[in-house]
Amino acid sequence: MPLALVAKGSLNQLRTISCKFTAPRIYPAIHPVPLSISTTSRMAPRAPWRDILASHLEKAPAHDFSIATVDYDAQGRAVPRVRTCGCRGFFPELELHPKGQQDIDEQVEDGGNPPLYESDMLTFTTDIRMEKLWQLKKSGFDPPIEAMFWLKDSMAQWRVKGRAYALGGPPSALWSPQEEADEELSRRELAQNLRRKTNGSGDPAKWTWDKAVTKYFANHSPIMRGSFRSPRPGQPRSEAPENPAIGMGQKVTDLHDPVARKNFRVVVIEPEEVELLDLTNLEDAKRWKWTLAREDRPENHWVQTELWP
Ligand SMILES: Cc1cc2nc3c(=O)[nH]c(=O)nc-3n(C[C@H](O)[C@H](O)[C@H](O)COP(=O)(O)O)c2cc1C
C-alpha cells in the first residue's frame, strides 16, 4: 500500500510510547530516501492550470476545500464520504508564520530544507486515526481522491481529481516495518512529481522528507499541534483514553513530539484531472478541463479542453 498508515495493532504501541516534555531538540535527518528526480521519466512540466489556481487562492480569504474519498458499507457497496480540510498549498512549498519559522530555525537541522523543489501537488494535513486515511488505504493501490474548492472571490469552482499519498516523518525509529514500507512507497511516488525550481538554490543532499513534513507540523499553532495528542477522533466521548499522554487542550512546542508526530500526516494529492468552472460572466460561463496524459509521450503532459459549462 502506498499510504503510510499505522497498523491497527500499533495503537497499543502508541499507548506505550513514553512521553518526555524536554526542551526542543535538533534532530538529524533519519530516513533520507533518495529523490531520484534526475532519473524520473514521468515528471510533467509546470501544469498550465497551476498559476490560475494559485492566483485564485491568493485572492481567497480562506483555503478550505472539500475532500472526497470512497468508503464501503456493510454490504461492500462503495459509498462517498466528504469533509472540509484546510489546503496547505503545493508540496513542498509552504510559507510559515513567523513563530513556526522560529521553531524550525531553532529545532531543525540547517533551519529546514533548501528551497529547491516545487510541484503541482496539493496538500492537507490530517491525523492518521481519522477515517479518511483508512478509506484511502481500503481503496488499494493509487488511492483515489477528489478535492473541491468554491472560491467565491474569483467566482470559480475547482475540482482536482487524483491519487493521494500520506507522508509521516520522525520518530521513524518507532515505525513498524509495514509503516516504513508504506512511507518509502509514498516518497518514491511523490518524488517523481517534484521539479527543480528555476530559481531554487541550496544543496540537494540537505533536502530530506523528514524536514519537509516537519515544516507542515511547524505550520500549526501549539494548540493545533496538541490536537494530535487528543483522544482518538470519532471515538465515543464516554471512552476515556488509557494513555496519560493523550488528552484534550495540550500545547505542543516540540516539533518532534513523539506522540503527536506519530499521528500527524501530510496528505499529498497527485492530480490527474483538474476542472475549472468560471462563473464570472453568467451569460457565458466557462468550463475547462485539464487531463494528465501519460501514454503518448515519454514525459507526462497536460491536455487542455474547453467544455460547455
Ligand atoms: C474549517 C475546517 C477545516 C478543517 N481542516 C481539517 C484538516 O485540515 N484536516 C483534517 O483532517 N480535518 C480537518 N477538519 C475536520 C474534518 O472536516 C473532519 O471532521 C475530520 O477530518 C474527520 O473526518 P474523517 O473521519 O472523515 O477523516 C476541518 C474542519 C473544518 C470545519
Automatic annotation (TrEMBL):
<dbReference type="InterPro" id="IPR024624">
    <property type="entry name" value="Pyridox_Oxase_Alr4036_FMN-bd"/>
</dbReference>
<dbReference type="Pfam" id="PF12766">
    <property type="entry name" value="Pyridox_oxase_2"/>
</dbReference>
<feature type="domain" description="Pyridoxamine 5'-phosphate oxidase Alr4036 family FMN-binding">
    <location>
        <begin position="47"/>
        <end position="166"/>
    </location>
</feature>
<dbReference type="GO" id="GO:0010181">
    <property type="term" value="F:FMN binding"/>
</dbReference>
<protein>
    <recommendedName>
        <fullName>Pyridoxamine 5'-phosphate oxidase Alr4036 family FMN-binding domain-containing protein</fullName>
    </recommendedName>
</protein>
<feature type="region of interest" description="Disordered">
    <location>
        <begin position="224"/>
        <end position="250"/>
    </location>
</feature>
<dbReference type="InterPro" id="IPR012349">
    <property type="entry name" value="Split_barrel_FMN-bd"/>
</dbReference>
